[in-house]
Amino acid sequence: MPISKLAYKHDKPINKFSQKDLDETFASFKECFGILEFLKIQLKYLPTSENKKFIVNQIETFINQFEEEKAYEVALKLFGIESFDREGKYTMPNFKNMVEVLQLNVFPVLPWDLNFGSLYKDLNESRYTELTEDARSLITAENDFSAIFSSEDSLHLAIIQRMRQGFLSTRSSEIYEIYSNICIAEKLEIKTTSREPNEKTTSKSLHVKSKLKVRNLFDTYYKKIKSTIAEDEYQQPKNPDLDWYRLISQAIQLRDNIIIFREQEIQLLQLYQLEKDDLLYKEIEIFLKKNNFNHRSLPKQKEIEEKPGGQGLLKKTAKIGKYRDIDAQYQKWILKNSDNIANTYEKKTTGQAG
Predict the structure, then answer these.
(1) What is the rounded distance in angstroms from the CA atom of residue 319 to the CA atom of residue 338?
(2) For residues 70 and 25, is the Cβ–Cβ distance under 8 A?
(3) pTM of the predicted model, to two decimals?
């Protein structure tokens, strides 16, 4: 559960929380639950409303309020929810990311209390060693475990998890896999070898150099990935006797409410996204025409930034996805809608009645 170095609005690390901070977070969770209920109401108005733009804006306002809540950011950390910007860098996850990620098998974990696996009780372990079809599903109930493995250094576990995920670098996960295989083989006293590409014979000197290079690469990725993680989040809490269990319980309740919200409102959420995208593409169309761009596709980002209102428009597109992906979707949309939007724009600018 790595926590990235991000500009959190509520930037106090969880392990530095006082009782007052916890009470504020509990109150904030209550606000989040209320906002979800308001969102349900607004979504139900969307299909039949004659003013869809107004409803979309209302929904967007509630979502922004949700993302402003302290509990929202705390939940992002506890669940380890992450997202990336159009340049592939870690960025603040939005409401849509949270709705998509949370599942019943996603559990909140206090940053300083990470673990890296568990042992099942003997009866369960013996069932799994039979390699039958029944053993393909994992056990998640803690009362079925006999031991849970953890480390005195939770930051180390966060670094290893990010290295294995390969989000920052696919190569980091490959180096982790190679290094693990070498270490396991040595533990089992199994000989490993290396050879040059297109060569059939192995080389002892090459193997020695290659193993050392893998070790050095592992160390390099470890240090670089460590620099992307908010280290202070993983220290033991300043106040260990606070009601941390209640914090976890509140996060689980938010997860469950989000899942119910998603399952009940899935079609309306999809409709909202379509309406929201439609409004954005209309805005892009008018912006491009107003600034004498080719309105069939997006120009370079720098060209948009230089125009009045361009930076605000790019912020809106960044919330949806990568710039090149927005361009591809916009081009598809423009083929279906360009004539209608262009005519509407021309009537407004020439003073013609609609």
Answers:
(1) 23
(2) yes
(3) 0.72
